[in-house]
Amino acid sequence: MSHFLKTSALMQRGTAFLGSEYAILCGAMSWVSERNLVAAISNAGGFGVIACGAMTPELLDGEITGTKALARKPFGVNLITMHPQLFELIGVCAKHKVGHVVLAGGIPPKGSVEAIRELGAKVICFAPTLALGKKLLRSGADALVIEGMEAGGHIGPVSTSVLAQEILPELAEDNLIFVAGGIGRGEVIASYLEMGACGVQLGTRFACATESIAHPDFKKAFFRANARDAIASVQVDPRLPVIPVRALKNKGTEEFTAKQIEVGKLLDQGSVDMGEAQLRIEHFWAGALRRAVIDGDVENGSLMAGQSVGMVTKEEPVAEIMAALMAECEAALATRKAA
Ligand SMILES: Cc1cc2nc3c(=O)[nH]c(=O)nc-3n(C[C@H](O)[C@H](O)[C@H](O)COP(=O)(O)O)c2cc1C
Fold first, then answer.
1. Which ligand 1 atom minimizes the distance to the CA of 307?
2. Strands 230-232 and 245-248, sheet pairing
3. Domain boundaries, the chain
4. Residue range 321-339: average pLDDT?
5. Does the CB atom of residue 304 touch ligand 1 within 6 A?
6. Quick check: 309 and 225 in contact, CB under 8 A?
7. Residue 242: what pLDDT?
8. Measured between alpha carbons, how far is residue 132 from residues 125, 144, 146 in Å?
């Protein structure tokens, strides 16, 4: 029995959907969300999600097997919609009877939502606007994540607070909506739950947990950083619609500007088309993130982080972070006047 009665009551639809004790997802973070962190999140009562990123089907197969060996509770898999082998990856999830697949990185391609549902798994999609949220639900998404631009990694243009106000009153009563972006403490979780969210998703707050395999220098950079250090990348070529990425400012963020100019020139010369140009940009990020997370190159790598990074001050076990979030949420709800 949970100590967090008020929070658990508000999270009930979310926990029933996820099969977890708390409706707190740790959003997939490429290179960071591998078996150790994912299993730790799920074992601590939350819901861990493997970041497939650019993995091949064989690598994903191995990662799911490895996570199963460590996790005693359910976990999900995040697939990037633009992955060229998306349907093979869905097949790997089917083989392992993964219960929840999160589709990230744009509108799911035709047939992908259906393919996931056919294997009996639940589909979670990102909704960048109210209209798209409605469309995704109509086309079969079981739940939505609305993620504001405070978040780490690839971001949309609108803040979490505005998305929550636009989307929750319209959709949350009849649908499962998780709120993400900029969540560092439980008090704000309480507010989103009261607005109708069935749960939340955090990334930055968990990235430097004890169980995270991120390099010690990557973690140190997070502990040192303030909210204002986590800045969104700037688009330099009007033809090249790069999705902004929020990361700690360093040489790598400057290199991204240079990369865009380089890819823009290739477009000028006609040596790449728009699709290839965007793919090159995404490969740049995947490589840069790996350099920071795995190699600890905090100068040239990409330190993707959300604005909540200022609230990440030390290495803590996942279970302690989870308990703190739940206790803060419960304490906030306890101060509300009885209806
Ligand atoms: C280092 C890092 C890597 C991320 N990589 C991915 C990814 O591969 N796929 C994805 O859907 N989201 C990715 N995200 C976003 C998270 O899943 C999550 O939605 C986000 O971190 C939530 O906002 P917060 O950082 O403010 O907590 C990443 C975030 C971070 C900080």
1. 26
2. antiparallel
3. 2-214+313-335, 226-304
4. 92
5. yes
6. yes
7. 79
8. 10, 10, 11
Specify the pLDDT at position 2: 66
More confident of the two residues 102 and 337: 102
Q: Pairing relation of β-strands 24-26 and 47-51?
A: parallel
C-beta 150 within 6 A of ligand 1:
yes
Q: What is the pTM of this model?
A: 0.96
User: What's the 3-state SS for 47-65?
Assistant: EEEEECCCCCHHHHHHHHH
Which CATH fold topology does 2-214+313-335 show?
TIM Barrel (3.20.20)
Does the beta carbon of 33 lie inside 6 Å of ligand 1?
A: no
Whether the per-residue pLDDT at 200 is higher than 90: the answer is yes
Task: Identify which has the larger pLDDT, 227 or 84.
Answer: 227
Instruction: Identify the burial level of 135 via C-beta atoms within 10 angstroms of its C-beta, where 0-12 means exposed, 13-18 middle and 19 or more buried.
Output: middle
Residue 40, pLDDT score:
98
- C-beta 51 within 6 A of ligand 1: yes
Residue nearest to atom 4 of ligand 1 (CA): 29
